[in-house]
Design a protein that fits this description.
The protein has 884 residues and is of the alpha+beta class. The chain has five domains: 252 residues, 2-Layer Sandwich (BirA Bifunctional Protein, domain 2), CATH 3.30.930; 181 residues; 111 residues, Elongation Factor Tu (Ef-tu), domain 3, CATH 2.40.30.130; 151 residues, Threonyl-tRNA Synthetase, Chain A, domain 2; 116 residues, Diaminopimelate Epimerase, Chain A, domain 1 (Roll), CATH 3.10.310.40. The protein is 38% helix and 26% strand. The protein is built from 23 helices and 37 strands.
C-alpha cells in the first residue's frame, strides 16, 4: 500500500529522530530579522546565523519540516505553477542538519538508508542516480566504495565557464560567506534503461527527478576566486515533500499525489471539467495552499510587499476559477478541504480557519466585480495587438484600473501566445509612483467643505479603545452609505477615543475595525462638534449604522501627550521668567516636538533659555500629578486658570492642573505625571513678528537623541580642530584671530595691487573730446575689486567713463562707471544695456554705476572697442556739459 503524504512526513522525522536528531518546528513563512527575504524559501533559512557563525544552537543534530514559498526573486516559480509537474508556490521542505557533528559519509549513508531500506521508503537502488561536484573526490568515493553505486550512475558536475567553484553542485549562500560542494539524488521515474552519464544528460528532463540535495558546508567564500576552510563543518539537506511523495505513491506528477488530488477533485466539482489534469485546477489547488499559509502568518492582502504577493496569488487563482466557469464565490470554501488533507501540518490553519476564510472571501468579493470587465477589455486588446505584443499602456491600464497584477495579464497572454511590452509597463508604473508621491493626501482640503451638525462623544481621556456606531461616511466630500476596500474617506462615529486636531494638538492615528473590516486612521480632525476619522479601508466594507471599535495608536498618543504637558510647563516657565505679560499666541503639539508662540517684547538670551529649561526639568523631576477637572468657568477663573481665548468658552470648562504651577483651560490630552516627560530641551528660538517670539522644543527620548546629535557634532568639530572638546572655544578664537590677520594682509596686498593697476589704467587711458575713456579686461581678478577701482578712478578723474571686465574660465563680470557730470548724455545703465544686448548677457544698474555678466567672452574685446566710437558720437558738443 502506498504511503500517504502525511505518513511520509512523519517517517522522515521519525527516521532522523532515531539517528539522534532533535525535531524542531519549521520557522514562520515571514523570515525573522532578515530583510533579504520576502518569504522563507528553504529549510536552512532559520539556521542562517548558525552557518555564518553568528549564533550558537543547543543541538548539533536537527530535523525539520519547513513551509516554504517561492514567488519572487531568485526562486520564482509562480509562472511555472500548474504548467509543469513539479513547481509550486508553496511546498514543504524536509531537511536534516548537522552543526559541526557528522559530515559527508554519515549524511550520505543516512540519505541512502532512508530512501532504500525496506523499513523506510524502499525505493529500488537501481532507480537512483547521484551527482557530485567534480572536485569533490571524497563524496565520489563514498558513493562508489561505501554505498557501492556503479560509477556510471555517479554524475560529476564541473565548473561553468572554467570559473572555479561556479557549479550547479557547489552551493553558496551569497557572493561571500559559507559555501560548499553538494551531492544530489535523482529518481529515474521512467522504465527507460539509462546506461551512462551521457544518456543521463540527454534524458534528464524527461526521465529524472531531483529528490534530495545534500550540501556540505565546509568553506567560507572570501571573493569570486578565493575560498578558505571554515573551522566548523555543517550539513544542510533539502528534500521536497511533494516530490518524494510522488515517487513513493508511484505517480509522475506532484499534482497526482493524495493531498493535491483531493483538492483538485473538490475544485472540479464546482465546474463541468472532468479532466483532473487541467492546468487551472492545478493552479487553484496550489494557490489555496500558499494563500492559506500566508494569511496564517498574519499577512493580509495589500498593494505592498508581502501583502501584494498574497493578493497576486489570490487574484491569479480567481482568474483561473473564472476561466473554468465558476460563477459563485468559491476560493474560501477550499480551506476546509485543505485543512483535512494537510494532516499534522494543518494545526495553524485550524486555529485561524475563520480568519483565513473571511479574508479570502472579502478579497474575492472585492475583485470579482472587476474581473469580468477587465478580462473582456484584455480579450479585446489582445485581438487588436500589433505584432502579437500587448502594449505597456494596456498592461498598466488593467493594473491601475482593475487591479490586474502583471503576472495575471501575462498568464492570459501566455495562453494565447501573445507577448507583453513589460518595459513600457514598468516605466508607466514608475511614472505614476513619482507623481503620486508629489500629491498631497486629499483629506487636507476636507475641513472647508464638510459640515456635520451631529455631536461625537470623546472618550479618549481615559480610554484607548471603545465601541462605536458609524453615523456618517464621506468619500471625496460626498456623503455615502458605505465605504469599500481600498477606498479613502472620512468616518464619523457617535463616540470615539480619537482626539480630533484642535488647540494646537494634532489628531490621533490608529484603526477602526470589526470582525469583517479594518479602517486605518491616518489623521483625525474636528468638524464642528463632531470628529472625523480620515483614512483608508484595507479589509471588508463599512456601512452607516455598523458597530465598530475605535482604537488609537497608544505610542503615538503618548508622544503627543508628553509634548502637550510640556507645553503647559513651558507657558508657566515663560511667565515666571519674563512676567505676566507673556501670553500664548499659537502652538503646535505633535508626536515629534512642540512649538510655542508667545507675546514678548524682550530679547531672549541664552541665559533665559537655560533658566526656562531648568525650571521645567525641575518640575519634571518632581513627578507632579497632572489633574483635569470639569469646573464652572467662573470657578476656574477664581483658581487663576489661564484663559487663552476670552468669550469662547462654555459654562463648564475642562481645567488642567499641574499643582499651582500651571492651571490652564484645555481640552487636549495629557500624561499622568510630569515625570513621564523625562526631559525637556529647547532646540530653537526665533522671532515670528514684532513682539511675537517662538520656541521649539523636544521631550523624552527625542530630546535625548537631539543631545546625542549635538555631542556627535562637538566630537566631529574637536576632531577637525585636533583638540579635545574643552579646548574648542580657545582653538576657534585663535583661528578667527589668525584669519583676521591674514585678511588684513590680503587687503594690504590688494590695495597695493589696485594702486598699481590704477596707475596703469590712467596711463593707458584714451581721451575722447576731453573725456577720459578707460576699458580693460582682467583675468581671475576679484569682482569686488573692480568696483573699488572704478570708484577710485571716478574720484581722481572728474570726467571719465570706465568699463572694467574680469574673466574667470569662460565666464565674465563687468563693472561700468560714469562721472556724475556726464550722466545727462551718457549713463552707466545705457552702456551696460548695449553691451549685454550684443553679448546676450544680463546686467543693470544706475546712471553712475552698473554691473553685469555672461558667458560669451570671445566678443568682449570687439564690443569694448566699439563703445569708444559710440561715446564719440554722444559727445558732439562737449561744451554743453563739461565742468572744469
Amino acid at each position: 500500500m502506498n504511503k500517504t503524504t502525511s505518513e511520509i512526513r512523519q517517517d522522515f522525522l521519525k527516521f532522523f529522530q532515531n539517528k539522534g536528531h532533535i525535531i524542531l518546528p519549521g520557522s514562520s513563512l515571514v523570515p525573522e530579522d532578515d530583510s533579504t527575504l520576502l518569504f522563507t524559501n528553504a529549510g536552512m533559512n532559520q539556521f542562517k546565523e548558525i552557518f555564518l557563525g553568528q549564533k550558537k544552537i543547543n543541538h548539533s543534530r536537527v530535523v525539520t519540516v519547513q513551509n516554504c514559498l517561492r514567488t519572487g526573486g531568485k526562486h520564482n516559480d509562480l509562472e511555472n505553477v500548474g504548467y509543469t509537474s513539479k513547481h509550486h508556490t508553496f511546498f514543504e521542505m524536509l531537511g536534516n542538519f548537522s552543526f559541526n557533528d557528522y559530515f559527508k559519509e554519515e549524511a550520505i549513508q543516512y540519505a541512502w538508508e532512508l530512501l532504500t531500506s525496506k523499513k523506510w521508503f524502499n525505493i529500488p537502488e537501481d532507480k537512483l542516480w547521484v551527482s557530485v561536484y567534480k572536485n569533490d573526490y571524497e563524496s565520489y568515493k563514498i558513493w562508489k566504495n561505501i554505498i557501492q553505486i556503479p560509477p556510471e550512475r555517479i554524475i560529476r558536475i564541473g565548473d561553468k565557464n572554467n570559473c572555479k567553484y561556479n557549479s550547479d553542485n557547489f552551493w553558496q549562500m551569497g557572493d561571500t560567506g559559507p559555501c560548499g560542494p553538494s551531492t544530489e539524488i535523482f529518481y529515474n521515474y521512467s522504465d527507460k534503461l539509462i546506461k551512462n552519464s551521457l544518456e543521463f544528460f540527454k534524458n534528464e528532463g524527461n526521465c529524472f527527478l531531483e529528490i534530495w540535495n545534500i550540501v556540505f558546508i565546509e568553506f567560507n567564500r572570501i571573493s569570486k576566486t578565493k575560498i578558505v576552510h571554515l573551522p566548523n563543518k555543517c550539513i544542510d539537506t533539502g528534500m521536497g515533500l511533494e516530490r518524494i511523495s510522488a515517487v513513493l505513491q508511484n505517480v509522475n506528477s506532484n499534482y497526482d499525489i493524495d493531498i493535491f488530488q483531493e483538492l483538485i477533485k473538490n475544485i472540479s466539482m464546482l465546474t463541468s471539467i472532468k479532466d483532473l489534469n487541467h492546468v487551472s485546477l492545478r493552479i487553484i489547488a496550489d494557490h489555496i495552499r500558499s494563500c492559506a499559509y500566508i494569511i496564517s502568518d498574519n499577512i493580509i492582502p495589500s498593494n505592498e510587499n508581502r501583502g501584494y504577493v498574497l493578493r497576486r496569488i489570490i487574484r491569479r487563482a480567481l482568474r483561473h476559477g473564472h476561466k473554468l466557469g465558476i460563477k459563485e464565490k468559491f476560493f474560501y470554501k477550499l480551506v476546509s478541504t485543505l485543512i483535512k488533507v494537510m494532516g499534522e501540518n494543518s494545526d495553524i490553519l485550524k486555529k485561524k480557519k475563520e480568519k483565513i476564510k473571511k479574508i479570502l472571501k472579502m478579497e474575492e468579493i472585492q475583485f470579482s466585480y472587476t474581473l469580468d470587465k477587465g478580462l473582456k477589455i484584455l480579450d479585446d486588446e489582445i485581438k487588436k495587438a500589433n505584432s502579437n505584443t500587448l502594449s505597456g499602456e494596456t498592461l498598466f491600464y488593467l493594473y491601475d484600473t482593475f487591479g490586474f497584477p502583471i503576472d495575471l495579464t501575462s498568464d492570459v497572454c501566455r495562453e494565447k501566445n501573445i507577448k507583453i511590452d513589460y518595459i513600457s509597463y514598468k516605466l508607466l508604473k514608475e511614472k505614476q509612483k513619482r507623481e503620486s508621491s508629489r500629491k498631497n493626501k486629499f483629506y487636507k482640503n476636507y475641513n472647508n467643505s464638510i459640515i456635520v451638525n451631529d455631536k461625537c462623544l470623546f472618550e479618549g481621556y481615559n480610554k484607548h479603545k471603545t465601541k462605536s456606531v458609524v453615523r456618517y461616511i464621506f468619500i471625496k466630500n460626498q456623503l455615502v452609505k458605505k465605504i469599500m476596500k481600498n477606498e479613502t474617506g472620512i468616518i464619523f462615529l457617535d463616540k470615539t477615543t480619537f482626539y480630533g486636531e484642535s488647540g494646537g494638538q494634532i489628531g490621533d492615528i490608529g484603526e477602526l475595525y470589526n470582525k469583517n473590516s479594518r479602517f486605518i486612521v491616518e489623521n483625525t480632525k474636528r468638524y464642528g462638534k463632531s470628529i472625523g476619522h480620515i483614512g483608508k479601508l484595507i479589509i471588508g466594507e463599512i456601512k452607516v449604522h455598523d458597530c465598530i471599535s475605535s482604537q488609537i495608536n497608544q505610542n503615538y498618543r503618548h508622544s503627543i501627550q508628553i509634548n502637550h504637558s510640556a507645553t503647559h510647563l513651558l507657558h508657566a516657565a515663560l511667565r515666571e521668567t519674563f512676567g505676566d505679560d507673556v501670553f500664548q499666541k499659537g502652538s503646535l503639539v505633535s508626536d515629534t516636538h512642540l512649538r510655542f508662540d508667545f507675546s514678548c517684547f524682550k530679547t531672549i538670551k541664552t541665559s533665559h533659555i537655560q533658566k526656562i529649561e531648568h525650571i521645567i526639568n525641575m518640575k519634571i523631576r518632581d513627578n507632579i500629578l497632572i489633574k483635569a477637572q470639569m469646573l464652572n468657568l467662573e470657578e476656574a477663573k477664581k483658581k487663576k486658570a489661564m484663559c487663552l481665548f476670552e468669550n469662547k468658552y462654555s459654562s463648564k470648562v475642562r481645567t488642567v492642573f499641574i499643582k499651582d504651577f500651571s492651571i490652564e483651560l484645555c481640552g487636549g490630552t495629557h500624561t499622568k505625571r510630569t515625570g513621564d516627560i523625562g526631559l525637556f530641551k529647547i532646540f530653537s528660538q526665533s522671532s515670528v513678528s514684532s513682539g511675537i517670539k517662538r520656541i521649539e522644543a523636544k521631550t523624552g527620548q527625542k530630546a535625548i537623541a537631539y543631545l546625542h546629535e549635538k555631542d556627535n557634532n562637538i566630537q566631529d568639530i574637536s576632531f577637525l580642530l585636533n583638540c579635545n572638546s574643552a579646548c574648542i572655544k580657545d582653538k576657534i578664537t585663535k583661528l578667527i584671530n589668525k584669519t583676521k590677520q591674514l585678511e588684513n594682509k590680503i587687503i594690504d596686498f590688494q590695495n597695493k595691487e589696485n594702486a598699481k593697476n590704477i596707475k596703469k589704467l590712467v596711463k593707458n587711458a584714451n581721451e575722447i573730446k576731453g573725456i577720459k575713456f578707460i576699458s580693460h579686461i582682467f583675468h581671475n581678478y576679484e569682482h569686488k575689486l573692480l568696483r573699488t577701482i572704478v570708484n577710485q578712478l571716478k574720484k581722481e578723474l572728474k570726467n571719465i567713463v570706465i568699463i572694467l571686465v574680469n574673466i574667470i574660465d569662460n565666464h565674465f563680470t563687468i563693472v561700468i562707471g560714469v562721472s556724475k557730470n556726464l550722466i545727462n548724455h551718457i549713463t552707466a545703465k545705457n552702456i551696460i544695456n548695449i553691451i549685454m544686448k550684443k553679448i546676450k548677457g544680463n546686467g543693470g544698474g544706475k546712471e553712475e554705476i552698473a554691473e553685469g555678466g555672461g558667458i560669451n567672452t570671445k566678443k568682449l574685446p570687439i564690443i569694448l572697442n566699439s563703445m569708444q566710437s559710440w561715446i564719440n558720437v554722444k559727445l558732439k558738443n562737449k561744451d554743453d556739459f563739461l565742468i572744469y
